[in-house]
Model the fold of this input.
Amino acid sequence: MRHAKPFRAAGNVGGAEDRVIIAAMIPLTVPALGSEEIAAAERVLRSGMLVQGREVQQFESELAQRTQRRHAIAVSSGTAALELALRALGVGPGDEVLVPALTWPSPGHAVLAVGASVGLVDVDPEEWNAHAFELGPRTRAVIAIDQFGNPARQRELASLAVPLIVDAACSLGSSYEGRPCGSFGAIATMSFHPRKVLTTGEGGACLTDDDALAERISVLANYGLDPRALHDGHHGVPGARFHARAEGWNASLD
Done:
């Protein structure tokens, strides 16, 4: 097992003037990165194409295939993926989004970022996932989470009367009733933070089968710039100020 080095901090702690040693922390995870990943990152750096580019396109293609999705849009983080999913679905001020009460803060933060309100839903004490989502008059969307890689009850969630976003940040590689996690919901989101099953250093993705949603997410992730703008007169999304493009060297680390 690899051990973390003690962290030394300066200052007055408990009246002591000397430097103190804070107990070493056991790392939550240690990314498995070796010479192949280093060479891939170097290849991107030498190419000069540090944002988007061929590596990102290949990563998106392979991710879509792995999750049986029509589209995979790589972005800068899992939190950005959640916010983009909400914005693409038109969620905004006055709306409510239901979120499991047991989760990392990112889903709630994404909801607040688009101006909507968060409705917390209790999780099942055995599986730690929420599945009993009671919709209210202002409920515009539901975020279900595959907690710690354990798939949520997708069959029950499929009958919801509002769009479902599945936060599959921890469940890449898991499956539910023969289907890969990431293949459920109007949009599923991924994170590639170093503690995830697959890491790109940082990064995230939105997965969807809807062509219109995929296009809107791609446009919103790039300051509202439609990639067709330079070719046929399109001008993107008015007022869009969001930036969440994927960096090429991140995609090379998968």
In short: The helical segments are 35-47, 54-66, 78-88, 106-113, 154-157, 211-220, 229-232, 248-251. Residues 1-13, 15-19, 230-235, 237-241 have pLDDT under 50 and may be disordered. The longest helix spans residues 35-47.
